[in-house]
Fold this sequence. Notes:
Chain A is mostly helical. Chain A has helices at 2-28, 50-56, 61-64, 79-86, 93-105, 116-125, 158-163, 169-172, 189-202, and one strand spanning 144-145. Helix content of chain A is 42%, strand content 1%. Chain B folds into four domains: 12-20 and 723-751 and 762-998, Alpha-Beta Plaits (2-Layer Sandwich); 146-210 and 385-508, Rossmann fold, CATH 3.40.50.740; 212-381, Dimethylsulfoxide Reductase, domain 2; 553-702, Barwin-like endoglucanases (Beta Barrel), CATH 2.40.40. Chain B is 24% helix and 20% strand. Chain B contains 28 helices and 44 strands. Classes of the chains: A mainly alpha, B alpha/beta.
Amino acid sequence: MANKGIRNVTAVLLIGAVFSVATLAARLGAFHLPGNNQGYSPEQPIAFSHRLHAGELLIDCRYCHYGAETSRHAGIPASSVCMNCHTFVTDTLGSLRAEDERAKEEKRKPNRMVSVELQKLYDALGLDNEMKAKPDAVPSSIEWIQVHNLPDFVYFSHSAHITANVACDRCHGAVETMERVSQVEDLSMGWCVNCHRDVNSVGLGGQSVDASLDCGACHY
Amino acid sequence: MVDNERAYWKSLAQRDDGTIPLPVVGSEPHDVSSPGARGVTRRDFLAAAGFTFGSVALTGCNRAPIEKAIPYLVQPEAIIPGRATFYASTCGACSAGCGLLVKNRDGRAIKLEGNPDHPHSLGGLCAIGQASVLGPYDSKRLQAPLLKNVSAKWDAVDGEIVARLEAIRRDGGTVRVLSGPVTSPTTRRMIDSFLGTFADARHVTYEALSTSAIYRAHERTHGARLLPRYAFDKADVIVAFDADFLGTWISPVVFAAGWSAGRDADAMRFSHHVQFEGRMSITGAKADQRIRIAPGELGLVMSHLASMLAHRAGRSFDSGSLATCPIDVHVLEGLADRLWHARGKSLVVCGSQDTDEQVLCNFINHLLGSYGATIDIQHAARRSDDDDAVQGLLQEMDSGTVDALFVHGVNPVYDLPNGADFAQALAKVETVVSFADHADETSRLARYNCPDHHYLESWGDADAGDGTISFRQPTMRPMFDTRSALESLSIWSGKKLSARAIVQETWKGRVSWDAAIHDGLATVRSEPISVSAFRSESVKAVRAAQPIPDGKLALALYPKASMLDGRSASNPWLQEMPDPISKVVWDNYACLSEPAATQLGMATGDIVRIDAGASKSIELPVLVQPGQHDQVIAIALGYGRAESARFADVGPEWLERKPVLGDNGLVGTSAAPLLTYRDDTLRLSGAIVSVTRTGRTHDLACTQDYHNIEVPEHLTVPGMNRRRPLIREVSIASYKKDGTLGHDAHGGHHDLGELWADDHKYEGHHWGMAIDLTACTGCSACVVACQVENNVPVVGRDEVRRKRIMHWMRIDRYYCDNNGDVDVAHQPMMCHHCDHAPCETVCPVLATVHSDEGLNQQTYNRCVGTRYCANNCPYKVRRFNWFEYAREDTLANMMLNPDVTVRSRGVMEKCSFCVQRIEQARVQAKQEGRPIADGDVVPACQQSCPARAIVFGDTNDPESAVSKMIARGRHYRLLEETNVRPSVGYLGLVRNREDDKDQTHHG
């Protein structure tokens, strides 16, 4: 009797152990070391689509991220940069066409259509639908959530990498396909160093490069 | 024993015992030798707690914290985030007006560099100038106008002031403006035009560190009140009577640049510099010959010198009844010969506040033909200060005849010996308006406080006198609701103009505005001042020395290179800058010579009462100062300012924390009550004081015995090779002969043996530095520049007492006996970036490793804080973060350098050769498709050095400036015998002395 009881308990424990190992193994794939933000894709205050702007409309990355060539920071575009186009483009093409149709049917002038997302931009700038400054509005910057975020003790220079012919997607992935940007690479030091090692042996864009492996190249 | 070796020591204890005392400040955190009876020791508890919290933290933090990226709404044209912009401007930290390049990041001024194109300051900037960048970010500034010390609106204050001024205009009342010396033509114009609207109005200027006597003397001898311009670079013989021109006198950056230019041992042009002084000043420390005299003997010695020179010139000088010369007449005759020999190429300066003595100085210069050669009085600085006028103003105020007083840039209640009287007289003035930026002793008594912008937020200009106009432009938006004094004056004059328009109006049609603002400079035609021929009749001999009664001492008050008159008292960097001579921080003290201290039975740290009679006395700790005159007591001015009360909280909060401030709740004690006012001038010296012990003691935080390189005798390994001297010194005569530092200079190529394979080739760049000890004055501009550039924290007096000062760069000061006096040598010390770095081999986690370009890198994020590296560093340059050294004023975080990591608790840090500047230069060069050129990388210390003592560059490039320095015969490496192969080298100290044999040899 006793033996049977022990056997039952052992069986239950074994099943439990197998189950735990299986669960853990499944979780292990998703395990990140502290600080590794790979796959991070936060919701942004405005659902800006890189797929649309960079992928479909083929706007160069550096049109908005204007500092990439000259500064350490690529830069998040000022709202005034958005307004270069969005003074005129206020809604999606589909929505504008639909309004045109409706206006034609109802025999009236089409109304100005403003998409929900662009309304947030105009609100930030304190503009009304006619793109005039609202007298009582207080303009305030859009607070984007930083996706690619290096620790404070790392000094990464966009301009150095652009000068050395490193393409944007090498670190940022195919941003032009992303509706919402997510961090593709793990941005760990090992990943940086591996690339530095590789390019030193094979070169970049057909040119030999001198990618430093010194700690002081990034940490100071 | 080699010829040129002299025994150098840092402190009296080291000289006498060969041992270096360790500070005793409670028990140190590493003192865990007694586990205690509590069962669980602190260490056990911390280990357990650390493990527990660590594991919780590790499992808890899977994601980095959310960070926001907030762009501009409308992109400003000049700003690219991450890129610095430099704007030319003019320093406003003192009245010298050196040229600046203000580094601006994201709209904030974060670092000041000297403007290399400025014709006078030549790119140098002093410690005070460097530290002044903290000014705008001072949360204790007056942030808005005050009405009766209550925050108010500008409109309300203006309304009241305008109404009162209207009444004064109507009634023909009296208006006075009290300010420091004004070098700005625009400010002068505005004050004049403002005062022009009143019937009885006058502008009164004074400087706490009075130069009044120089103006008065020139009025007597040349018929014009002026402050001459001195050309130290043109002088072959320089004689200074109590003038600390390399440290604090008038325009030290400009003078140091000139002095250093005239002393190039390798170009075979080397001036001879003789200093007469009672205390040990920075300038005295650099002199080739230093003659100790009491302040009261100055006039007599000058009279003797004048008499000797007059005799040589065949001129009459009434020297009939001169008292005996207090110094060896042969020495003075020798000096007279030397000066006479160098007629037209000599320069005599005098820092005295006595007009007769200044007249004697003018007479000597006149005899030597210095006017027109090394002294320019026709293009003199257009500024003035007049102590007499302040005392006149005080009487006027006291008699109740002043209706309105405007105070700008001075603090008379603190500055003046009769400051209390001034405070009382202020109460009798109906309308007192202060422009002060802090609530200081004077502004607290003002009815209206109309705080001026910080100079980095202002428009302005400065006239050097020779046609060079320096311009000041705002380099950041005003932090607070302050207003330019120019605008305030214009509003009260009835026409509201912007400060920009006001400055522009001054120079309309005379300068090209855009170019002038871009360069920070313009040259205009400067009308020479008309001066009369030298009036010999004005010269009077000073016939006797001021007697010092037995048991009394002659007082010499002096400004410190960090504090001057105390205007920067709220700047923690300057408070924590070790004094170039005494190495004391966060205090002033009474300096006594060794014999005087012995005789009085006093030792360093004893608090004494210094009594000048007439109930004027102060209490200060004693500091025994080698090289000081035996009958002189020297005390620094500028301490005990009301603003310094803010530092009560500076430094880390912890159990064994000790008070940072003195018993009076302030940093140091004001010595202003001991100033004297005599014969129309405010005098720093001249009082005769008695000194008595109080029985109490005060621990001075003094860094001189910290970070010792020398191993004390009793700790040396028997049989170990004799150490080479740390300071290598040679006389100019000997250096001219063989171009080396003596026999040991290059003869020391013993087989050093190699611990490491020579497998690091450094094929690209190899960064290195050479420091000329002949040029270095110890002024410490580099120390503060490094602190600003590299986000080095301030730790406070208590932590400094525990040897935890964080400066990456320190200046070691050594003494050496010289015939009863001492010689001084300064040696800037920072990480030597050794190719065989001892620190690297002992780091268990490879947090400090060597780069391909010869840099010793410290990787903070890898450091676990074992401190092995610091123990193994022969140069003692590594600093450990015992605490999270937060800034005392969190607003100051706004000016942290974003290119340098702010180190956290528990990591080691040290000089990085400004690697951020190297990396920046590298990216810049790559972008432009060229290699890094010599001069592209200028570390903060080199940039700031007024004497151009520091040169940095690529030692692999034989054409680089640093390679050329290394190639010189007087280049040597410190601790070369240890074969650590440092990348920093020194050029030996050269003094203009006849021969090494003249020197006394010790050691």
